[in-house]
Design a protein that fits this description.
Layout: H1 2-18, E1 22-24, H2 26-36, H3 38-58, E2 64-73, E3 79-82, H4 89-106, E4 111-114, E5 117-130, H5 134-200, H6 206-241, E6 248-250, H7 267-272, H8 275-297, E7 301-311, E8 318-328, H9 333-402, H10 408-443
Parallel strand pairs: 1-6
Antiparallel strand pairs: 2-5, 3-4, 5-7, 7-8
Helix pairs in contact: 2-5, 3-5, 5-6, 5-8, 5-10, 8-9, 9-10
Length: 445
């Protein structure tokens, strides 16, 4: 019994620890996303593949060594020759006469056969001396592949950072809206108590109670929408960072922001430092190397090598060795290669056009991100002013309501305006955070 109690206590302890809230700042979420995101893991595997390709291309610099072994046993000899195989009948008759008289005494046979069984062993090594530059350019192209894979990983990291921060601030914004709704509900509860007493005293109409109930039901529906939205966004964030959404608690809040002027960069200068621009540059270099490799197919190639062999095909085993050089000159490929080179020229021109087009689009994208940042900053200022006015308006309206100068509907409207103003400020601050992250990524700040 005591042992069972100990096991039960341990299980309860583990369950309690498992349910402990996971307190996460926005930087914590980014770090977890970069560590656990599946797409980033695949990006790292792409880098490993590119490195393997580079090692494969580097192996072309080293000698190629091969060995072969053949053993055979034929049903009949591969080669046989005798007196019967001579076409000249007169000569054949003379040889028969000579064989009958002297052949048996001299140990000669009527027919001789060769190569019925045996073993052949061979080893060869070759080393390319010149291959039209294809080996050198192939290694350069493989190196570019590694650089491209690393840049692609950085681009993916930026996407994951932006996705993570966007989800984080969206959740924080909904949580702050939920706090605003809590404040509104407390105001409605206070009104409900005051209104109940006023109706009993004959100072208010029962219809006011109905209006208040409608507003409370509306608040209840808004709460449901907010909690559902928070749950869905937490699920999305948890999937991105590799965590349990049910235990996540976000610690950062939408505080004060720095003016966007502190982050400004000239668009064309910012574009040149982006990973996407470097990828476009690599595409041009890759096209140039592909063209050189195609040209190398039409150039002479030279290799040297050596081989050694051993065989038992004939009566006595024999060994042999040799060294050799091979010069190969394509003669009929020049016409075909000229069209291949033309295709590479067209591919290079297309890559240059693509780079110019995307560079211009990235500059527009950077400017658009800056405009969005400025607009969201202006929106914060306007929302803060509207909030101040809404708070003052509610205070005045409540005072007038207590003095019997305005109706309940005016108070409810003032409360609604206050909620809308607070939600607008929350949305504008969350938008500013996301726009700031976007702009700083585009400018590599």
């Amino acid at each position: 019994m005591k042992k069972c109690l100990i096991i039960l206590a341990l299980l309860l302890s583990c369950t309690a620890r498992a349910q402990e809230p996971l307190r996460l700042s926005v930087q914590d979420c980014i770090d977890m996303a970069l560590e656990n995101n599946i797409e980033l893991k695949n990006s790292q595997l792409e880098i490993d593949k590119a490195r393997a390709t580079k090692n494969e291309a580097r192996a072309e610099y080293f000698p190629t060594i091969s060995a072969q072994a053949v053993a055979f046993d034929a049903l009949n000899p591969m080669f046989s020759f005798g007196i019967e195989d001579i076409d000249n009948a007169q000569l054949r008759q003379i040889l028969y006469t000579l064989y009958a008289e002297y052949g048996a005494n001299m140990g000669l046979e009527k027919e001789y056969s060769f190569i019925q069984n045996g073993v052949i062993l061979n080893a060869m090594a070759t080393e390319p001396i010149y291959a039209g530059g294809r080996i050198r350019n192939g290694n350069k192209l493989a190196k570019l592949g590694i650089e491209a894979a690393e840049l692609q990983e950085k681009v993916k990291e930026d996407e994951v950072r932006l996705q993570t921060e966007t989800l984080y601030w969206q959740i924080v914004a909904l949580q702050e809206k939920l706090t605003t709704l809590d404040q509104l509900d407390r105001l409605l509860d206070t009104l409900d108590k005051d209104l109940s007493g006023a109706i009993e005293a004959g100072l208010a109409m029962p219809t006011d109670q109905y209006k208040l109930k409608v507003k409370q039901n509306e608040s209840l529906l808004n709460r449901k929408k907010l909690t559902d939205g928070i749950t869905l966004l937490k699920m999305a964030l948890a999937q991105t960072i590799g965590a349990d959404w049910q235990t996540m608690t976000l610690t950062d809040t939408l505080g004060f922001e720095t003016e966007p002027a502190a982050y400004y960069h000239v668009a064309n200068e910012a574009v040149r430092s982006r990973n996407e621009s470097q990828l476009l540059d690599l595409s041009l270099r890759a096209e140039d190397l592909k063209k050189k490799m195609t040209l190398g197919e039409a150039l002479p190639s030279l290799l040297v090598g050596g081989s050694a062999n051993y065989h038992t095909v004939f009566d006595h085993p024999k060994t042999n060795a040799m060294i050799f050089a091979m010069l190969q000159i394509p003669i009929t490929d020049w016409h075909k290669t000229s069209y291949k080179l033309k295709k590479h020229d067209l591919d290079a021109e297309m890559a240059e056009n693509t780079r110019r087009d995307l560079t211009e689009k990235m500059e527009m994208q950077t400017n658009q991100a800056w405009f969005n940042l400025e607009q969201s900053w202006l929106r914060i200022g306007m929302a803060q002013t509207a909030l101040n006015d809404a708070e003052a308006n509610l205070k005045i309206t409540e005072d007038y309501y207590e003095a019997g100068l305005v109706a309940l509907s005016d108070v409810l409207e003032a409360q609604t305006l206050l909620k809308q103003s607070r939600d607008e400020l929350t949305d504008s601050r969350a938008a500013y955070r996301v726009n700031l992250v976007t702009y700083r990524q585009l400018t590599k700040d």
